Amino acid sequence: MASAKQTARIRVIDGHLKSKPVTSLHSTPPNGLKYTVDSCHVLSMKEREFFEENGFFVVKGLVDQKDLDIYRERFKQICNGEIPKPAGLIVMKDVAIAKSEYMQGDSAITKIQDFHSDPVLFEYCSHEGILKYAEQFIGKDIMAMHTMLINKPPDPGSKSSRHPLHQDLHYFPFRPADRIVASWTAMEHVDRRNGCLVVLPGTHKGKLLQHQYPEWEGGVNKMYHGVRDFDENSPRVHLVMEPGDTVFFHPLLIHGSGMNTTNGFRKAISCHYASSHCEYIDVKGTVQENIQKEVIEIARRRLGDDVQFEFQDIWYMKGRLVHGERVNL
Ligand SMILES: CC(C)CC(=O)SCCNC(=O)CCNC(=O)[C@H](O)C(C)(C)COP(=O)(O)OP(=O)(O)OC[C@H]1O[C@@H](n2cnc3c(N)ncnc32)[C@H](O)[C@@H]1OP(=O)(O)O
Ligand SMILES: O=C(O)CCC(=O)C(=O)O
């Protein structure tokens, strides 16, 4: 029989998952500005209107080079085993080299994810300048829900360094969508040659679409689902950015990134923030069922079959309060 410890549910609070219907994704305030909040004034009205219309906003030079250097060094230390791996961290190789024993160290790593237990990298999520902007989109009670340092490698010829077009909300079992925002900071110059972000302006006004693995001959990285049945003719904007420039974007905005055709690694650091007033939802019977299944399968392999948990528990465990009060999430 499994021990009490083994059978202990990971779920930490009572009732946070009480099955709720998938609620409306958009609120409708009287002034018509639904993707930004009135209580914060870091953006001018014109800038707010830009975000409302397009679903993204770039802030130039928001993070200092010295901070980027610290994150870069920490990434190296983690990937090269110079410090113990922080709890919960996922270290991911590109699918093209995942089974190769020859590639080692930081140049073999395509991304680290869930660095919430690493005090050095997590500084990025509590960065005052970033939080000031995050507040404009989601209000003052802010949780850091998902963290990544992406090290897009030179493409080995497989084209697998691409990140298919997708909506981030596909991965998130909490709502409302309008109170979630991503920050993505370039750690070096990014343009189309090294696979900068590409966004489809205005797509955040749509709904969450079905996602699945694209049929790419050279393979697709684990969980890199692509959006289906979107308007292929929708205009695309490639975000050319300098180190420290930060783009904030809505979780329904369709975006992705192209192949890295250079010899260098294209680094970016990112955090997804959500208002702590958001609530967990049950994704059963929705377009998110496929990602739920995959996330649970991977977590089960790591935690063991006898630990019981649900999709939302995984998010509950890694969410961290970075500003204001923790309410629901
Ligand atoms: C908003 C945001 C979420 C948007 C996004 O970023 S979407 C992408 C989200 N990405 C993730 O959640 C990260 C997913 N990655 C992972 O969980 C891990 O890196 C894993 C793919 C499970 C590999 O973990 P690892 O500890 O290396 O485990 P193993 O060495 O035992 O490998 C297990 C099996 O997975 C394979 N694998 C490793 N890396 C990749 C890859 N990049 N793509 C596809 N398959 C991969 C590996 O070859 C192994 O396969 P088998 O030997 O079991 O056949
Ligand atoms: O950094 C990239 O290449 C893509 C990142 C992205 O699309 C995401 O994190 O949702």
Automatic annotation (TrEMBL):
Gene3D superfamilies per record: q2cbj1_9rhob like domain
The keyword Metal-binding is annotated on this UniProt entry: yes
GO MF entries: L-ascorbic acid binding; metal ion binding; phytanoyl-CoA dioxygenase activity
Required cofactor(s): ATP; Fe cation; L-ascorbate
A GO cellular component annotation in the UniProt record: peroxisome
Enzyme class: oxidoreductase
Metabolic or biological pathway, per its Swiss-Prot or TrEMBL entry: Lipid metabolism; fatty acid metabolism
Recorded catalytic activity of this chain's protein: phytanoyl-CoA + 2-oxoglutarate + O2 = 2-hydroxyphytanoyl-CoA + succinate + CO2; 3-methylnonanoyl-CoA + 2-oxoglutarate + O2 = 2-hydroxy-3-methylnonanoyl-CoA + succinate + CO2; 3-methylbutanoyl-CoA + 2-oxoglutarate + O2 = 2-hydroxy-3-methylbutanoyl-CoA + succinate + CO2; butanoyl-CoA + 2-oxoglutarate + O2 = 2-hydroxybutanoyl-CoA + succinate + CO2
Organism domain of life: Eukaryota
Enzyme Commission designation: 1.14.11.18
Keywords: Dioxygenase, Iron, Metal-binding, Oxidoreductase, Vitamin C
One GO-annotated biological process of the protein: fatty acid alpha-oxidation
Family as reported in the entry's similarity comment: Belongs to the PhyH family.
Protein's recorded name: Phytanoyl-CoA dioxygenase, peroxisomal
Gene: LOC100180098
